[in-house]
Every structure is written in C-alpha cells, then in structure tokens.
Amino acid sequence: MSKRTRAKSFSRRKPSRKPYDKILVVCEGQQTEPNYFNGLKNYLRLNGANVAIVGEGAAPTTIVERAKALDKWWKGMGDPFDKIFCVFDKDTHADYQTAIDQCAQKNYVAVTSVPAFEYWLLLHFRYTTKPYDDVSGVLHALKEWMPNYHKSYAGIFAELRDKLETAKKNAARSLEDRTQARTDNPSTKVHILVQSQRWLGKFEQGG
What we know:
By secondary structure, this protein is an alpha/beta fold. The chain has helices at 3-13, 32-43, 60-76, 96-106, 118-122, 135-143, 156-160, 164-180, 190-194, 197-204, and strands spanning 23-27, 51-55, 83-89, 109-114, 187-188. It has a five-stranded mixed sheet, sandwiched between helices. α3 (60-76) runs parallel beside α4. Residues 1-12 and 203-207 have low confidence and may be disordered.
C-alpha cells in the first residue's frame, strides 16, 4: 500500500473530533513516555481524535522534525493541531539546545527533562534536587521506589496515578529552585504538559 493510499484510508477512518483543543505529543522514547501519556489520556477519557501521542525513539532534533512533518500533514488535511509538544531528555544529546531552539521557532512546547524522563517519575515519590551525572543515577534512585521499573512497562501511569498531584507540585518546585540556582540539573517540564489547559480543555468546557 502506497503512502498516499494509506493517508486516504486513514482520513476515511478518522474519528470525530470533540469541541476542545487538538494536541500532538511527540516523544523521544518509544515506550516509557508514550505508555505514561497514553495511560493519562485513557484515565481522563480524552478523545483519540483530539490527542495524538507518538513515540519516536530518536534524538531531540529528529523529534522536532517528526512534529513538523505531522503538523504539515494534518494542516494539509484541513484538521491542524492547536498545540504541539515535543518531549525529550537532555541526557548526553549534542543537539539538545538546537531542538529547544527549533521548538521555539515553530511555537512548539519543548517538554524537557534533565537528565531524563525518569526524574519526572521519581518526583511522584519524593522531592529532590540532587544533581545526576547521567541517567543511571536517576534510574538507581527510581528503583528504590519501583524495583521492577523497566522501559517497556505498559502499566506505568496506572501505578503512579494516585501520586500525580505530588509529582506536579514537586516538578514545579524543582524547576523554580533550579532556575534560581542557574542550573537545569535536575529538572523537568513534564508537569507543564500534564496540567496544560490545551490538554485539559475538555473539562473547562464541561466535557
């Protein structure tokens, strides 16, 4: 099946949008981040036509390029996204700042985590601003609370759901603290996506 045929087939099957914002979330990770956000989407009963979540498994600038391609395609279909979020880690990526700059140029939201998304997961359990040299340090800390954690854990959101408010408060506090300290290690902006009115607009309109 050609790309054009697949596109036409997909457009015919396209579910009806609800009367609230349509958002796109493009993630660096192929499993952890999409599993978490899809769990949140299902928990909030958000319409699949309004919230698209894509896991790329690629470097930050590739995430932005993927977002641009999907943005262009949906605009061409006459059903553009209202807001686009690019979720990626700093880790050891040489193109990290470039990706942030590219997001700013396109008015996309760069949802970053330093050093990795696992710092956001850790904040569901405890507040900490201890700097991490690499991802392994965060994973070690997280596994004190989640011994069975692994990248392909499909039930990640369900396990952490009751701690979501704690994570949001800890993330906001950490980001403010790190900003004042003039460093980004550790920090995350995932709470900005999770509590975004673009994401939760359904509830503002009584959906």
